[in-house]
């Protein structure tokens, strides 16, 4: 199992205000003002990275808004008292570093 503090430090190189939370005993990382490459531009959204199993996926990235022209089958989830959007993107190895998990989840949005 990876050290959450070490993984959080790596994520802060990507999103300097990343904060570690817990949901159901699992780590959850809030990524405020995450810069996302999307369709040739950069958009800023909030993110929520679940580097472990969530809702039938081995890892999951939730965003404060959907990108319906990228990714597939967007769904809305209520997490930590707020609505979050996630595309159907499975198979991102939870054994990777959290920064690598984030990168893999962001790839379909480019």
Automatic annotation (TrEMBL):
Entry keywords, A to Z: Plasmid
Protein name, per record: Uncharacterized protein
């Amino acid at each position: 199992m990876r050290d959450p503090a070490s993984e959080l430090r790596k994520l802060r190189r990507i999103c300097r205000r990343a904060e570690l939370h817990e949901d159901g005993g699992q780590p959850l990382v809030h990524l405020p003002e995450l810069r996302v490459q999307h369709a040739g531009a950069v958009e800023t959204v909030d993110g929520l990275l679940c580097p472990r199993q969530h809702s039938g996926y081995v890892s999951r990235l939730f965003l404060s808004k959907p990108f319906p022209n990228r990714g597939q089958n967007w769904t809305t989830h209520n997490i930590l008292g707020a609505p979050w959007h996630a595309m159907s993107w499975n198979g991102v190895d939870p054994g990777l570093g959290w920064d690598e998990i984030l990168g893999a989840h962001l790839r379909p949005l480019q």
